[in-house]
Each structure stands twice: as C-alpha cells, then as structure tokens.
Amino acid sequence: MTGKEAPIGIFDSGIGGLTVFREVYRNLPNENIVYFGDTARVPYGSKSPETVLRYSRQIVHFLKTCGVKAIVVACNTASALALDVLEQEVDLPVLGVVKPGAAVACEMTKNRKIGLIATESTVKSGLYERLIRGIDPADTVYSKACPLLVPLVEEGWTEDPITLEVIKRYLGGLLEKDIDTLILGCTHYPLLRGLIRKYLGDSVSLVNPAYETARTLERMLDELDLKNPSAAEPVYRFYASDSTDGIRRIAERILPDCMDFSVQAVSIEEY
C-alpha cells in the first residue's frame, strides 16, 4: 500500500496503546493500521529518557519498514520523552498523546484544578504541566505517579478488588485537592476507567487522551490530504516484541469480534 491507502502506525510500551487503536478504528474506519506493543520491555515509566528514546527510534524504524504514512506515539512516557526528537528525525507526520489530552483538560475544568495520573517518567518530565499552564496560567495541575497500575493492567486485573484498593491509595490525595478533572495520563489507564469512576464518582470529569488523539489525528490527515478514501476492507496488523498473549487477550475484549487478532512477534532490537 502506498499514499493515502498506506497504514497508520501506532506504538506503545505494551497493550495500553490498544485504547488508542480502538479510538482510531472508531473515528477513522477506512484507515489501515499497524500496531506494535513493546511487550519485551514494558513498562517505560521507570526507564531513563535516553532508553525511552532508543526504544522509540527502534520501533519507528520497524514501522517505517511496514510502509506507514503517519505514526502515533500511543504512549504518554514516549510522547513526553521522545516525541520532540522523533518529530525532527522522522520524515513522516508524528503525533503523540500528551498535547491532545492537555488541551481538552483545559477546556473541561471549571475550578481550574486538574489532576494527572501517569507513569513516573511522565510526571517527572513536567510536560503536561507546561502545556496546560501554557494554555491557561490560571490552571493548577496536581500530578501523581502510579507505577503499579500498568503491571496490573498487563496482568489483566482491570476489574479486580486489589486494583481498586491501589487506585484508592493513589487517588486519595488528588481528591483532597478538590480536582474536578482527571487526566488518564497513560494509555493503559482507560482500561481502568470503570474502577476509577467507581472511586471518584461523577463529580470529576475524566480525560481520555486516546480519544482526543484520534480526533487530532483525523484533523491532521485532513490537513495533509492523507485520509484514506478507499471503501475497501481495512487491514489491521498487530506486532509485539515478546509475549503476544497480552495483546491478543485485551484486543479480544475491547475490539470488535470480527477483527483478526493474530499477533506476530518481532525482534525489535534488530532495528
């Protein structure tokens, strides 16, 4: 496939980016998609910026061999630590998940108190705070690193009472700050939306950067005249750097039954 019919490449540190895949699938139904989950090296949240950049470069190189026309960095950590460099190095449109989520949080908050849950690296980067304060200096961001949530999602414990207790421990301090908006600052976290909503109630609006990224991607493809006009059946390909079971398990749960969930292993270090 070439030109407008070429696929969109989406990558994440593991299975969480499937939430971005789902939103792209829903909002851009004509697009072919290649998904890569770096299951051999998840999580990225505790890795150094240099390591995350190296991983991201390898994955981008692999996606380019798949003939993609655009790349979505469906990982908040990689978006925070590697996106700026990738945008300079890659001769394709590259989109992250942080900027769309930050923009919508500013639109949604009423009391100017925004909560952020994310990986340790994303919180330390301060990118969400800088973007939000750049949009509205009156906004205050209260951030909380939640390192246990990614492995719990990867384990499939998305409705487990233990996971709810972990969420309570992490989010209790944010509730005390009187936040009215919470950014789910890791693509794994929308898979915990039910438990997070159960704890927070309806008084806190949840921002899902995966959905906002898909909307931004659609606008970007329109502006670049890269949207696929073909009515042919789209092709979806899934790849992983190690275990393929997690991707298949989550894909079968959150994506349509009619989709082929075969996942191919890739030796990503070769790229």
Number of helical segments?
A: 12
* Class inferred from helices and paired strands: alpha/beta
So what's the overall shape?
Answer: globular
Number of DSSP E strands = 10
The share of residues in extended strands comes to: 15-25%
Set out the fold topology:
Blueprint: E1 8-12, H1 18-27, E2 33-37, H2 49-65, E3 70-73, H3 76-81, H4 83-89, E4 94-96, H5 98-108, E5 113-118, H6 120-125, H7 127-135, E6 140-145, H8 149-154, H9 161-176, E7 181-185, H10 193-200, E8 205-207, H11 209-223, E9 236-240, H12 245-254, E10 263-265
Parallel strand pairs: 1-2, 1-3, 2-9, 3-4, 5-6, 5-7, 7-8, 9-10
Structure description:
The chain has 271 residues and is of the alpha/beta class. The chain has two domains: 3-96 and 211-270, Rossmann fold, CATH 3.40.50.1860; 98-209, Rossmann fold (3-Layer(aba) Sandwich). 45% of the residues lie in helices and 17% in strands. The protein has twelve helices and ten strands. The strands form two sheets. Strands 4-3-1-2-9-10 form a six-stranded parallel sheet, sandwiched between helices. A four-stranded parallel sheet has the order 6-5-7-8, sandwiched between helices. The chain starts with 7 loop residues before the first strand and ends in a 6-residue tail after the last strand. The mean pLDDT is 93.
Summarize this entry quickly.
By secondary structure, the chain is α/β, with parallel strands linked by helices. The protein has twelve helices and ten strands.
